[in-house]
TrEMBL record:
It comes from Sphenostylis stenocarpa. This is DYW domain-containing protein. The keyword Repeat applies. GO terms for biological process: RNA modification. Gene3D superfamilies: Tetratricopeptide repeat domain (1.25.40.10).
Length: 604
DNA sequence: TTAGGGTTAG
Protein backbone atom coordinates (compact mmCIF):
# COMPACT_ATOMS: atom_id res chain seq x y z
CA UNK A 1 0.00 0.00 0.00
CA UNK A 2 1.30 3.45 -0.83
CA UNK A 3 2.11 5.28 2.38
CA UNK A 4 0.80 8.64 1.13
CA UNK A 5 -2.70 7.26 1.28
CA UNK A 6 -2.44 6.97 5.03
CA UNK A 7 -0.62 10.21 5.77
CA UNK A 8 -2.44 11.90 8.65
CA UNK A 9 -4.18 15.19 7.96
CA UNK A 10 -1.72 17.96 8.68
CA UNK A 11 -1.15 19.65 11.03
CA UNK A 12 -2.07 17.53 14.03
CA UNK A 13 -2.99 19.56 17.04
CA UNK A 14 -2.19 17.32 19.98
CA UNK A 15 -0.16 14.34 21.08
CA UNK A 16 -3.41 12.41 21.62
CA UNK A 17 -4.22 12.78 17.94
CA UNK A 18 -0.68 11.82 17.03
CA UNK A 19 -0.87 8.65 19.12
CA UNK A 20 -4.07 7.64 17.32
CA UNK A 21 -2.45 8.09 13.92
CA UNK A 22 0.62 6.27 15.10
CA UNK A 23 -1.34 3.21 16.17
CA UNK A 24 -3.29 3.27 12.91
CA UNK A 25 -0.02 3.26 10.96
CA UNK A 26 1.27 0.37 13.05
CA UNK A 27 -1.89 -1.64 12.37
CA UNK A 28 -1.41 -0.98 8.66
CA UNK A 29 2.07 -2.46 8.89
CA UNK A 30 3.85 0.82 8.18
CA UNK A 31 6.05 0.77 11.27
CA UNK A 32 9.19 0.67 9.14
CA UNK A 33 8.09 3.23 6.57
CA UNK A 34 10.26 6.34 6.95
CA UNK A 35 7.90 8.62 5.02
CA UNK A 36 4.85 7.69 7.07
CA UNK A 37 6.72 7.82 10.35
CA UNK A 38 8.38 11.13 9.51
CA UNK A 39 5.08 12.92 9.69
CA UNK A 40 4.57 11.72 13.22
CA UNK A 41 8.17 12.40 14.08
CA UNK A 42 8.02 15.96 12.77
CA UNK A 43 5.08 16.84 14.98
CA UNK A 44 6.60 15.25 18.09
CA UNK A 45 9.97 16.90 17.50
CA UNK A 46 9.05 20.36 16.34
CA UNK A 47 5.57 21.33 17.45
CA UNK A 48 4.97 23.29 20.64
CA UNK A 49 2.53 20.57 21.62
CA UNK A 50 4.91 17.77 20.69
CA UNK A 51 6.96 15.44 22.84
CA UNK A 52 10.61 14.95 22.03
CA UNK A 53 10.83 11.79 24.14
CA UNK A 54 8.05 10.21 22.11
CA UNK A 55 9.99 11.17 18.99
CA UNK A 56 13.14 9.52 20.31
CA UNK A 57 11.26 6.36 21.20
CA UNK A 58 9.70 6.25 17.75
CA UNK A 59 13.13 6.77 16.21
CA UNK A 60 14.50 3.66 17.92
CA UNK A 61 11.80 1.56 16.23
CA UNK A 62 12.89 2.59 12.73
CA UNK A 63 15.20 -0.03 11.25
CA UNK A 64 16.53 2.21 8.48
CA UNK A 65 16.06 5.90 9.31
CA UNK A 66 16.88 8.16 6.36
CA UNK A 67 18.51 11.59 6.13
CA UNK A 68 15.15 13.33 6.48
CA UNK A 69 14.52 11.62 9.80
CA UNK A 70 17.93 12.64 11.08
CA UNK A 71 17.48 16.23 9.89
CA UNK A 72 14.22 16.45 11.80
CA UNK A 73 15.95 15.32 14.97
CA UNK A 74 18.85 17.74 14.46
CA UNK A 75 16.40 20.60 14.31
CA UNK A 76 14.65 19.35 17.42
CA UNK A 77 17.95 19.07 19.29
CA UNK A 78 18.80 22.62 18.28
CA UNK A 79 15.42 23.88 19.52
CA UNK A 80 15.59 22.05 22.84
CA UNK A 81 19.27 22.87 23.23
CA UNK A 82 20.76 19.38 23.34
CA UNK A 83 24.02 19.83 21.46
CA UNK A 84 25.56 16.55 22.61
CA UNK A 85 22.65 14.54 21.18
CA UNK A 86 23.02 16.38 17.86
CA UNK A 87 26.60 15.36 17.41
CA UNK A 88 26.01 11.84 18.65
CA UNK A 89 23.20 11.29 16.16
CA UNK A 90 25.23 12.92 13.41
CA UNK A 91 27.98 10.38 13.89
CA UNK A 92 25.40 7.56 13.89
CA UNK A 93 24.06 8.93 10.65
CA UNK A 94 27.48 8.85 9.04
CA UNK A 95 28.12 5.35 10.38
CA UNK A 96 24.98 4.24 8.58
CA UNK A 97 26.53 5.66 5.39
CA UNK A 98 23.75 8.21 4.98
CA UNK A 99 24.66 11.36 3.05
CA UNK A 100 23.92 14.77 4.55
CA UNK A 101 21.89 17.14 2.40
CA UNK A 102 21.38 20.90 2.43
CA UNK A 103 19.01 20.63 5.40
CA UNK A 104 21.51 18.81 7.58
CA UNK A 105 24.07 21.41 8.57
CA UNK A 106 22.05 24.55 9.41
CA UNK A 107 20.62 23.04 12.62
CA UNK A 108 23.78 21.13 13.39
CA UNK A 109 26.12 24.10 13.36
CA UNK A 110 23.69 26.23 15.34
CA UNK A 111 23.49 23.64 18.09
CA UNK A 112 27.26 23.60 18.74
CA UNK A 113 28.50 24.64 22.14
CA UNK A 114 32.20 24.62 21.21
CA UNK A 115 33.90 26.62 18.51
CA UNK A 116 35.97 23.58 17.62
CA UNK A 117 32.80 21.67 16.79
CA UNK A 118 31.70 24.42 14.42
CA UNK A 119 35.07 24.25 12.69
CA UNK A 120 34.82 20.49 12.28
CA UNK A 121 31.31 20.71 10.90
CA UNK A 122 32.45 23.49 8.60
CA UNK A 123 34.98 21.05 7.16
CA UNK A 124 32.16 18.54 6.61
CA UNK A 125 30.07 21.23 4.91
CA UNK A 126 32.87 21.67 2.38
CA UNK A 127 33.57 17.94 2.06
CA UNK A 128 29.95 17.09 1.31
CA UNK A 129 29.69 19.83 -1.26
CA UNK A 130 27.66 22.55 0.50
CA UNK A 131 30.36 25.22 0.32
CA UNK A 132 28.13 27.34 -1.92
CA UNK A 133 24.82 26.71 -0.17
CA UNK A 134 23.50 30.00 1.11
CA UNK A 135 21.29 28.48 3.81
CA UNK A 136 24.14 26.50 5.27
CA UNK A 137 26.64 29.34 5.10
CA UNK A 138 24.24 31.85 6.67
CA UNK A 139 23.91 29.53 9.63
CA UNK A 140 27.67 29.13 9.83
CA UNK A 141 28.00 32.92 10.04
CA UNK A 142 25.66 32.80 13.00
CA UNK A 143 27.48 29.96 14.64
CA UNK A 144 30.86 31.68 14.36
CA UNK A 145 29.52 34.96 15.71
CA UNK A 146 28.09 33.11 18.70
CA UNK A 147 31.67 32.34 19.69
CA UNK A 148 32.86 35.85 18.89
CA UNK A 149 34.90 34.58 15.91
CA UNK A 150 34.55 37.67 13.80
CA UNK A 151 37.20 36.65 11.27
CA UNK A 152 35.71 33.22 10.63
CA UNK A 153 32.22 34.69 10.27
CA UNK A 154 33.43 37.31 7.81
CA UNK A 155 35.41 34.77 5.83
CA UNK A 156 32.28 32.67 5.43
CA UNK A 157 30.27 35.70 4.31
CA UNK A 158 32.79 36.51 1.58
CA UNK A 159 32.63 32.96 0.21
CA UNK A 160 28.88 33.14 -0.37
CA UNK A 161 28.45 33.42 -4.14
CA UNK A 162 25.22 35.42 -3.91
CA UNK A 163 24.68 36.68 -0.39
CA UNK A 164 20.99 37.33 0.15
CA UNK A 165 19.24 39.65 2.58
CA UNK A 166 19.51 37.00 5.31
CA UNK A 167 23.29 36.76 4.83
CA UNK A 168 23.63 40.53 5.14
CA UNK A 169 21.34 40.75 8.14
CA UNK A 170 23.25 37.95 9.84
CA UNK A 171 26.38 40.03 9.43
CA UNK A 172 24.69 43.11 10.90
CA UNK A 173 23.36 41.22 13.92
CA UNK A 174 26.71 39.47 14.40
CA UNK A 175 28.52 42.80 14.60
CA UNK A 176 25.79 43.99 16.91
CA UNK A 177 26.34 41.05 19.26
CA UNK A 178 30.00 41.93 19.50
CA UNK A 179 29.19 45.57 20.24
CA UNK A 180 30.71 46.71 16.93
CA UNK A 181 28.00 49.26 16.27
CA UNK A 182 29.74 51.40 13.67
CA UNK A 183 30.79 48.34 11.69
CA UNK A 184 27.22 47.02 11.84
CA UNK A 185 25.90 50.33 10.54
CA UNK A 186 28.48 50.37 7.78
CA UNK A 187 27.31 46.91 6.63
CA UNK A 188 23.69 48.00 6.95
CA UNK A 189 24.30 50.94 4.64
CA UNK A 190 26.06 48.72 2.12
CA UNK A 191 23.15 46.27 1.93
CA UNK A 192 21.84 46.03 -1.63
CA UNK A 193 18.32 45.51 -0.32
CA UNK A 194 16.80 45.63 3.13
CA UNK A 195 13.64 44.21 4.63
CA UNK A 196 11.89 44.70 7.97
CA UNK A 197 14.16 42.21 9.68
CA UNK A 198 17.27 44.08 8.58
CA UNK A 199 15.91 47.42 9.79
CA UNK A 200 14.99 45.89 13.10
CA UNK A 201 18.39 44.23 13.52
CA UNK A 202 20.11 47.60 13.04
CA UNK A 203 17.76 49.54 15.30
CA UNK A 204 18.13 46.83 17.95
CA UNK A 205 21.89 47.14 17.62
CA UNK A 206 21.71 50.84 18.53
CA UNK A 207 19.35 50.13 21.42
CA UNK A 208 21.42 47.28 22.83
CA UNK A 209 24.45 49.51 22.86
CA UNK A 210 22.65 52.44 24.49
CA UNK A 211 22.81 54.59 21.35
CA UNK A 212 19.19 55.59 21.67
CA UNK A 213 19.26 58.77 19.63
CA UNK A 214 20.52 56.88 16.59
CA UNK A 215 17.86 54.23 17.18
CA UNK A 216 15.13 56.87 17.09
CA UNK A 217 16.68 58.50 14.00
CA UNK A 218 16.84 55.19 12.14
CA UNK A 219 13.28 54.34 13.13
CA UNK A 220 12.15 57.65 11.68
CA UNK A 221 14.00 56.89 8.46
CA UNK A 222 12.45 53.45 8.34
CA UNK A 223 8.99 54.98 8.50
CA UNK A 224 9.86 57.51 5.80
CA UNK A 225 10.75 54.54 3.59
CA UNK A 226 7.35 53.09 4.45
CA UNK A 227 8.66 49.88 5.95
CA UNK A 228 5.91 48.30 8.00
CA UNK A 229 6.18 48.45 11.80
CA UNK A 230 5.79 44.81 12.87
CA UNK A 231 5.85 43.23 16.32
CA UNK A 232 9.64 42.96 16.30
CA UNK A 233 10.29 46.61 15.48
CA UNK A 234 7.59 47.60 17.95
CA UNK A 235 9.29 45.59 20.73
CA UNK A 236 12.69 47.03 19.85
CA UNK A 237 11.40 50.62 19.83
CA UNK A 238 9.54 50.06 23.09
CA UNK A 239 12.83 48.99 24.57
CA UNK A 240 14.42 52.20 23.22
CA UNK A 241 11.66 54.25 24.88
CA UNK A 242 12.19 52.27 28.08
CA UNK A 243 15.91 53.00 27.93
CA UNK A 244 15.49 56.76 27.87
CA UNK A 245 12.14 57.05 29.66
CA UNK A 246 10.43 58.45 26.57
CA UNK A 247 6.81 58.08 27.60
CA UNK A 248 5.20 59.99 24.74
CA UNK A 249 7.00 58.00 22.08
CA UNK A 250 6.33 54.81 24.01
CA UNK A 251 2.62 55.63 24.02
CA UNK A 252 2.80 56.26 20.29
CA UNK A 253 4.32 52.82 19.67
CA UNK A 254 1.67 51.24 21.90
CA UNK A 255 -0.99 53.04 19.86
CA UNK A 256 0.68 51.87 16.67
CA UNK A 257 0.52 48.26 17.88
CA UNK A 258 -3.20 48.67 18.49
CA UNK A 259 -3.89 50.53 15.24
CA UNK A 260 -2.02 47.97 13.14
CA UNK A 261 -3.76 45.09 14.87
CA UNK A 262 -0.43 43.55 15.87
CA UNK A 263 -1.08 40.50 18.04
CA UNK A 264 0.17 40.95 21.59
CA UNK A 265 2.25 37.89 22.29
CA UNK A 266 3.87 37.50 25.67
CA UNK A 267 7.10 39.24 24.64
CA UNK A 268 5.50 42.27 23.04
CA UNK A 269 2.97 42.59 25.88
CA UNK A 270 5.76 42.47 28.41
CA UNK A 271 7.72 45.08 26.47
CA UNK A 272 4.71 47.43 26.70
CA UNK A 273 4.27 46.78 30.43
CA UNK A 274 7.98 47.32 30.98
CA UNK A 275 7.91 50.58 29.03
CA UNK A 276 5.07 51.99 31.18
CA UNK A 277 6.77 50.79 34.40
CA UNK A 278 10.10 52.34 33.51
CA UNK A 279 8.58 55.53 32.13
CA UNK A 280 6.96 56.11 35.48
CA UNK A 281 3.35 55.17 34.62
CA UNK A 282 2.88 52.30 37.00
CA UNK A 283 -0.90 52.34 36.99
CA UNK A 284 -1.08 52.33 33.21
CA UNK A 285 1.45 49.45 33.21
CA UNK A 286 -0.78 47.52 35.56
CA UNK A 287 -3.88 48.11 33.44
CA UNK A 288 -2.10 46.80 30.36
CA UNK A 289 -0.72 43.87 32.35
CA UNK A 290 -4.18 42.87 33.57
CA UNK A 291 -5.52 42.85 30.03
CA UNK A 292 -2.72 40.69 28.60
CA UNK A 293 -4.16 37.47 27.27
CA UNK A 294 -0.85 35.64 27.34
CA UNK A 295 1.24 36.25 30.44
CA UNK A 296 4.60 34.51 30.57
CA UNK A 297 6.70 34.31 33.72
CA UNK A 298 8.54 37.36 32.40
CA UNK A 299 5.33 39.38 32.24
CA UNK A 300 4.69 38.71 35.92
CA UNK A 301 8.33 39.27 36.82
CA UNK A 302 8.32 42.55 34.98
CA UNK A 303 5.21 43.87 36.74
CA UNK A 304 6.41 42.67 40.16
CA UNK A 305 9.74 44.36 39.40
CA UNK A 306 7.84 47.50 38.40
CA UNK A 307 6.13 47.69 41.78
CA UNK A 308 9.50 47.03 43.44
CA UNK A 309 11.20 49.86 41.60
CA UNK A 310 8.48 52.28 42.57
CA UNK A 311 8.74 51.38 46.24
CA UNK A 312 5.36 49.65 46.32
CA UNK A 313 6.50 46.55 48.15
CA UNK A 314 3.08 45.42 49.36
CA UNK A 315 1.64 45.60 45.84
CA UNK A 316 4.59 43.58 44.54
CA UNK A 317 3.96 40.86 47.12
CA UNK A 318 0.22 40.88 46.43
CA UNK A 319 0.89 40.37 42.73
CA UNK A 320 3.30 37.55 43.47
CA UNK A 321 0.56 35.84 45.48
CA UNK A 322 -1.82 36.24 42.55
CA UNK A 323 0.74 34.70 40.25
CA UNK A 324 0.87 31.65 42.50
CA UNK A 325 -2.92 31.45 42.82
CA UNK A 326 -3.45 31.70 39.08
CA UNK A 327 -0.98 28.84 38.72
CA UNK A 328 -0.53 29.15 34.96
CA UNK A 329 3.18 29.91 35.11
CA UNK A 330 5.51 29.00 37.93
CA UNK A 331 7.65 31.60 39.69
CA UNK A 332 11.32 31.35 38.78
CA UNK A 333 14.56 32.69 40.24
CA UNK A 334 13.97 36.13 38.71
CA UNK A 335 10.52 36.33 40.31
CA UNK A 336 12.16 36.01 43.70
CA UNK A 337 14.90 38.50 42.89
CA UNK A 338 12.10 40.97 42.20
CA UNK A 339 10.06 40.05 45.29
CA UNK A 340 13.15 40.41 47.49
CA UNK A 341 14.09 43.69 45.79
CA UNK A 342 10.57 44.91 46.50
CA UNK A 343 11.03 44.07 50.18
CA UNK A 344 14.43 45.77 50.25
CA UNK A 345 13.20 48.97 48.60
CA UNK A 346 10.22 49.25 50.93
CA UNK A 347 11.97 48.33 54.16
CA UNK A 348 9.98 45.09 54.53
CA UNK A 349 12.72 43.19 56.34
CA UNK A 350 10.67 40.41 57.94
CA UNK A 351 8.76 39.80 54.71
CA UNK A 352 12.08 39.57 52.89
CA UNK A 353 13.27 36.85 55.25
CA UNK A 354 9.98 35.06 54.84
CA UNK A 355 10.17 34.96 51.04
CA UNK A 356 13.84 34.00 51.07
CA UNK A 357 12.94 30.84 52.99
CA UNK A 358 9.68 30.37 51.07
CA UNK A 359 11.58 30.31 47.79
CA UNK A 360 13.56 27.28 48.95
CA UNK A 361 10.91 25.47 51.02
CA UNK A 362 7.91 25.86 48.73
CA UNK A 363 9.39 26.34 45.27
CA UNK A 364 12.65 24.44 45.66
CA UNK A 365 14.67 27.30 44.17
CA UNK A 366 18.17 27.44 45.64
CA UNK A 367 19.30 31.02 46.26
CA UNK A 368 21.96 32.33 43.88
CA UNK A 369 24.31 35.30 44.32
CA UNK A 370 21.63 37.74 43.29
CA UNK A 371 19.26 36.50 45.99
CA UNK A 372 21.98 36.81 48.60
CA UNK A 373 22.69 40.29 47.26
CA UNK A 374 19.04 41.18 47.83
CA UNK A 375 19.21 39.92 51.42
CA UNK A 376 22.35 41.93 52.08
CA UNK A 377 20.67 44.97 50.57
CA UNK A 378 17.50 44.37 52.59
CA UNK A 379 19.32 44.18 55.91
CA UNK A 380 21.98 46.76 55.26
CA UNK A 381 19.57 49.43 54.02
CA UNK A 382 17.55 48.93 57.18
CA UNK A 383 20.70 49.65 59.17
CA UNK A 384 21.24 46.04 60.26
CA UNK A 385 24.79 46.03 58.98
CA UNK A 386 26.12 43.29 61.24
CA UNK A 387 23.41 40.87 60.12
CA UNK A 388 24.15 41.78 56.51
CA UNK A 389 27.78 40.94 57.11
CA UNK A 390 26.70 37.62 58.57
CA UNK A 391 24.72 36.79 55.40
CA UNK A 392 27.83 37.47 53.33
CA UNK A 393 29.95 35.37 55.65
CA UNK A 394 27.55 32.43 55.56
CA UNK A 395 26.62 32.37 51.87
CA UNK A 396 27.88 29.22 50.16
CA UNK A 397 29.53 30.98 47.22
CA UNK A 398 32.15 33.72 47.37
CA UNK A 399 30.52 37.16 47.36
CA UNK A 400 31.07 39.18 44.20
CA UNK A 401 31.33 42.94 43.79
CA UNK A 402 27.55 43.27 43.47
CA UNK A 403 26.87 41.61 46.84
CA UNK A 404 29.57 43.59 48.62
CA UNK A 405 28.46 46.70 46.74
CA UNK A 406 25.05 46.42 48.40
CA UNK A 407 26.74 46.54 51.80
CA UNK A 408 28.96 49.41 50.69
CA UNK A 409 25.94 51.41 49.53
CA UNK A 410 24.32 50.94 52.91
CA UNK A 411 27.48 52.10 54.68
CA UNK A 412 27.12 55.30 52.69
CA UNK A 413 23.48 55.72 53.69
CA UNK A 414 24.23 55.05 57.35
CA UNK A 415 27.56 56.86 57.44
CA UNK A 416 29.51 53.84 58.67
CA UNK A 417 33.11 54.82 58.03
CA UNK A 418 34.91 51.81 59.50
CA UNK A 419 32.92 49.10 57.72
CA UNK A 420 32.55 51.24 54.60
CA UNK A 421 36.30 51.63 54.30
CA UNK A 422 36.92 47.91 54.70
CA UNK A 423 34.21 46.86 52.26
CA UNK A 424 34.95 49.70 49.84
CA UNK A 425 38.57 48.64 49.43
CA UNK A 426 37.53 45.03 48.80
CA UNK A 427 34.90 46.01 46.27
CA UNK A 428 37.34 48.23 44.40
CA UNK A 429 39.82 45.38 44.14
CA UNK A 430 37.09 43.04 42.88
CA UNK A 431 35.78 45.56 40.36
CA UNK A 432 38.66 47.95 39.67
CA UNK A 433 37.27 49.34 36.43
CA UNK A 434 33.95 50.46 37.91
CA UNK A 435 34.06 54.16 38.75
CA UNK A 436 30.92 53.94 40.88
CA UNK A 437 32.75 51.93 43.56
CA UNK A 438 35.41 54.63 43.99
CA UNK A 439 32.79 57.34 44.06
CA UNK A 440 30.80 55.61 46.82
CA UNK A 441 33.89 55.13 48.98
CA UNK A 442 34.86 58.75 48.29
CA UNK A 443 31.39 59.86 49.37
CA UNK A 444 31.68 57.91 52.62
CA UNK A 445 34.98 59.67 53.36
CA UNK A 446 33.57 63.05 52.35
CA UNK A 447 30.60 62.66 54.62
CA UNK A 448 32.99 62.19 57.56
CA UNK A 449 35.15 65.12 56.48
CA UNK A 450 38.10 62.88 55.58
CA UNK A 451 39.31 65.04 52.72
CA UNK A 452 42.75 63.48 52.54
CA UNK A 453 41.24 60.06 51.98
CA UNK A 454 38.88 61.55 49.41
CA UNK A 455 41.93 62.82 47.55
CA UNK A 456 43.54 59.38 47.91
CA UNK A 457 40.57 57.68 46.24
CA UNK A 458 40.61 60.23 43.46
CA UNK A 459 44.33 59.68 42.91
CA UNK A 460 43.83 55.91 42.79
CA UNK A 461 41.22 56.42 40.07
CA UNK A 462 43.53 58.68 38.11
CA UNK A 463 46.49 56.35 38.45
CA UNK A 464 44.42 53.48 37.15
CA UNK A 465 42.91 55.55 34.39
CA UNK A 466 39.35 54.96 35.69
CA UNK A 467 37.09 57.78 34.57
CA UNK A 468 34.01 58.73 36.52
CA UNK A 469 31.03 57.71 34.44
CA UNK A 470 29.55 61.00 33.33
CA UNK A 471 26.10 61.57 34.81
CA UNK A 472 23.31 62.66 32.53
CA UNK A 473 19.61 63.27 32.80
CA UNK A 474 16.97 63.08 30.12
CA UNK A 475 13.59 64.69 29.83
CA UNK A 476 11.20 64.19 26.94
CA UNK A 477 9.39 67.27 25.63
CA UNK A 478 7.27 67.55 22.51
CA UNK A 479 8.35 64.11 21.37
CA UNK A 480 12.06 64.89 21.63
CA UNK A 481 14.44 63.50 24.22
CA UNK A 482 16.58 66.27 25.74
CA UNK A 483 19.80 65.20 27.35
CA UNK A 484 21.68 67.20 29.99
CA UNK A 485 25.11 66.73 31.53
CA UNK A 486 26.24 68.52 34.68
CA UNK A 487 27.23 72.08 33.88
CA UNK A 488 26.48 71.51 30.18
CA UNK A 489 25.58 74.45 27.95
CA UNK A 490 24.91 72.64 24.67
CA UNK A 491 21.15 73.02 24.79
CA UNK A 492 19.81 75.77 22.50
CA UNK A 493 17.90 77.22 25.49
CA UNK A 494 20.88 76.97 27.86
CA UNK A 495 20.67 80.59 28.96
CA UNK A 496 17.00 80.42 29.87
CA UNK A 497 17.55 77.08 31.60
CA UNK A 498 20.34 78.45 33.81
CA UNK A 499 18.20 81.46 34.67
CA UNK A 500 15.42 79.07 35.66
CA UNK A 501 17.85 77.07 37.85
CA UNK A 502 18.74 80.25 39.74
CA UNK A 503 15.10 81.13 40.16
CA UNK A 504 14.38 77.60 41.42
CA UNK A 505 17.20 77.69 43.94
CA UNK A 506 16.09 81.08 45.26
CA UNK A 507 12.53 79.85 45.57
CA UNK A 508 13.47 76.75 47.56
CA UNK A 509 15.96 78.58 49.77
CA UNK A 510 12.98 80.52 51.09
CA UNK A 511 11.45 77.25 52.30
CA UNK A 512 14.66 76.03 53.88
CA UNK A 513 16.90 74.53 51.19
CA UNK A 514 20.48 74.16 52.35
CA UNK A 515 22.93 72.69 49.82
CA UNK A 516 24.09 69.24 50.85
CA UNK A 517 27.60 68.49 49.71
CA UNK A 518 27.92 65.03 51.30
CA UNK A 519 27.73 63.21 48.02
CA UNK A 520 30.17 65.36 46.10
CA UNK A 521 33.56 63.92 45.37
CA UNK A 522 35.39 67.22 45.28
CA UNK A 523 38.57 69.04 46.03
CA UNK A 524 37.27 72.54 46.40
CA UNK A 525 37.54 74.73 49.43
CA UNK A 526 34.46 74.94 51.60
CA UNK A 527 32.94 78.18 50.34
CA UNK A 528 33.30 77.28 46.65
CA UNK A 529 31.92 73.82 46.75
CA UNK A 530 28.27 74.70 46.30
CA UNK A 531 28.51 75.73 42.70
CA UNK A 532 28.91 72.49 40.71
CA UNK A 533 26.06 71.05 42.71
CA UNK A 534 23.67 73.70 41.41
CA UNK A 535 24.15 72.56 37.84
CA UNK A 536 23.78 68.82 38.28
CA UNK A 537 22.11 67.30 35.26
CA UNK A 538 18.82 66.55 37.04
CA UNK A 539 18.46 70.19 38.11
CA UNK A 540 18.99 71.32 34.52
CA UNK A 541 16.41 68.80 33.28
CA UNK A 542 13.87 69.90 35.90
CA UNK A 543 14.47 73.57 35.07
CA UNK A 544 13.89 72.83 31.39
CA UNK A 545 10.75 70.90 32.29
CA UNK A 546 9.42 73.82 34.31
CA UNK A 547 10.16 76.18 31.44
CA UNK A 548 8.25 74.08 28.94
CA UNK A 549 5.20 72.95 30.92
CA UNK A 550 2.23 74.57 32.58
CA UNK A 551 2.08 74.75 36.34
CA UNK A 552 0.93 71.50 37.91
CA UNK A 553 2.04 69.18 35.11
CA UNK A 554 4.09 66.10 36.00
CA UNK A 555 7.77 66.16 35.06
CA UNK A 556 9.49 62.88 34.24
CA UNK A 557 13.26 62.73 34.35
CA UNK A 558 15.51 59.74 33.73
CA UNK A 559 19.02 59.69 35.16
CA UNK A 560 21.75 57.18 34.33
CA UNK A 561 23.33 57.25 37.81
CA UNK A 562 21.93 57.36 41.31
CA UNK A 563 20.33 60.67 42.19
CA UNK A 564 22.51 62.58 44.66
CA UNK A 565 21.37 63.67 48.10
CA UNK A 566 21.31 67.34 47.25
CA UNK A 567 19.24 66.86 44.10
CA UNK A 568 16.92 64.60 46.07
CA UNK A 569 16.35 67.28 48.69
CA UNK A 570 16.02 70.03 46.10
CA UNK A 571 13.49 67.99 44.08
CA UNK A 572 11.31 67.54 47.14
CA UNK A 573 11.18 71.27 47.73
CA UNK A 574 10.70 72.12 44.05
CA UNK A 575 7.68 69.80 43.93
CA UNK A 576 6.20 71.79 46.80
CA UNK A 577 7.04 75.31 45.70
CA UNK A 578 6.10 74.78 42.05
CA UNK A 579 3.12 72.61 42.89
CA UNK A 580 4.13 69.87 40.47
CA UNK A 581 4.91 66.18 40.65
CA UNK A 582 8.41 65.21 39.65
CA UNK A 583 9.18 61.60 38.84
CA UNK A 584 12.87 60.77 38.64
CA UNK A 585 14.04 57.36 37.55
CA UNK A 586 17.59 56.76 38.65
CA UNK A 587 19.86 53.77 38.17
CA UNK A 588 18.10 51.77 40.87
CA UNK A 589 14.56 52.93 41.34
CA UNK A 590 11.91 55.62 41.01
CA UNK A 591 11.42 58.69 43.15
CA UNK A 592 7.98 60.31 43.02
CA UNK A 593 8.30 63.80 44.44
CA UNK A 594 5.03 65.39 45.41
CA UNK A 595 4.20 68.21 47.80
CA UNK A 596 7.63 68.17 49.41
CA UNK A 597 7.82 64.38 49.95
CA UNK A 598 9.42 61.52 48.08
CA UNK A 599 7.86 58.09 47.58
CA UNK A 600 11.12 56.48 48.70
CA UNK A 601 10.66 58.08 52.10
CA UNK A 602 14.35 59.00 51.89
CA UNK A 603 15.11 55.30 52.00
CA UNK A 604 17.24 54.73 48.92
C1' DT B 1 6.44 12.33 -1.86
C1' DT B 2 8.07 15.09 3.49
C1' DA B 3 11.38 20.47 5.79
C1' DG B 4 14.48 25.35 6.15
C1' DG B 5 17.72 30.55 7.54
C1' DG B 6 18.36 36.33 9.95
C1' DT B 7 15.01 40.30 14.14
C1' DT B 8 11.83 41.19 19.93
C1' DA B 9 10.63 41.50 26.41
C1' DG B 10 12.73 40.09 31.82
Amino acid sequence: MSSCLVAPPWPCSSMAEVRQHHSLLLRLGLSTDNYAMSRILTFCSLSNHGDINYALKLFTTLPNPDTFVYNTLFKAFFICDSPSLSLLFYSHMLQRSLTPNSFTFPSLVRACKLQQEVKQLHAHVLKFGFGADTFTLNNLIHAYFAFGSLDDARRVFYTIPNPNVVSWTSLVSGYSQLGLVDEAFHVFELMPSKNGVSWNAMIACFVKNNRFREAFDLFRKMRVEEVEVDRFVAATMLSACTGVGALEQGKWIHGCVERNGIVLDSKLGTAIVDMYCKCGCLDKAFRVFCRLEVKGASSWNCMIGGFAMHGRGEDAIRLFREMEEEGVVVPDDITFVNVLTACAHSGLVEEGFFYFRYMVDVHGIEPNKEHYGCMVDLLARAGRLEEAKKVIYEMPMSPDAAVLGALLGACRIHGNLVLGEEVGKRVIELDPGNSGRYVTLGNIYARCGKWEQVAGVRKLMNDRGVKKEPGFSMIEMEGMVNEFVAGGRDHPLAEAIYAKVHEMLEAIRVVGYVPDTDDVLHDLVEEEKENPLFYHSEKLAIAYGLLKTKRGETLRVTKNLRVCKDCHQASKLISKVYDCDIIIRDRNRFHHFSNGECSCKDYW
